[in-house]
Design goal:
Blueprint lengths: L1 E5 L5 E6 H9 L3 E13 L4 E10 L15 H7 L13 E4 L14 E4 L1 H7 L21 H4 L11 H7 L1
Parallel strand pairs: 1-4
Antiparallel strand pairs: 1-2, 3-4, 5-6
GO molecular function, one term: endonuclease activity
Pfam family, one: HNH_5
InterPro entries: HNH_5, HNH_nuc, NA-targeting_endonuclease
């Protein structure tokens, strides 16, 4: 059971276990907005509803710009598990400009790639292979990318994640 945590301004911050969310509610650091019906949690002093979405009582400032870290899973997800060269099912990632030629691990240089195209391309650029990219690689956009843990979102979270998009 997981719980979406919202900042005091309804900005999604992340996803925590329902136990962590319940501790925040019990310590009056958060309030339950959405709950799981019919599954209360009994404490010594009172009964709490099982939280699905909570909001912090005080605003938490997040230092720095929130950007999604570059990961293999993130690149595959951004490209919908489709090869950037042939459009087939992708299982690997590829550096558009190979690392041996100074290519970096950035959103702009990584694309999802099928094993066949990755092996054919090898240590060359798409221009040298006379290939074209089916998409323009770049950093993902949208609120779900900047909030950790929402890749398997609960339907009750949708209104709050839509605000962040």
């Amino acid at each position: 059971m997981r719980t979406l945590v919202l900042n005091a301004g309804y900005e999604p911050l992340g996803v925590v276990s329902f136990k962590r969310a319940l501790v925040l509610v019990m310590n009056e650091k958060a309030t339950i907005i959405e709950q799981v019906e019919g599954e209360p949690v009994c404490a010594t002093s009172r009964v709490y509803e099982r939280p699905a979405v909570i909001i912090l009582t005080r605003y938490v400032r997040i230092p720095g710009a929130r950007s999604a870290p570059v990961t293999r899973r993130g690149v595959l997800r951004r490209d919908a598990h489709r090869c950037a060269y042939c459009g087939g099912a992708a299982s690997t990632i590829d550096h558009v400009l190979p690392r041996s030629r100074g290519g970096k691990d950035t959103w702009d240089n990584l694309v999802a790639c099928c094993l066949r195209c990755n092996n054919l391309k090898g240590d060359r650029t798409p221009q040298e292979m006379s290939w074209s990219l089916r998409l323009v690689p770049g950093a993902p956009r949208g609120g779900q990318w900047t909030v950790r843990g929402v890749d398997r979102a609960d339907p009750r979270w949708e209104p709050y994640l839509a605000l962040a998009a």
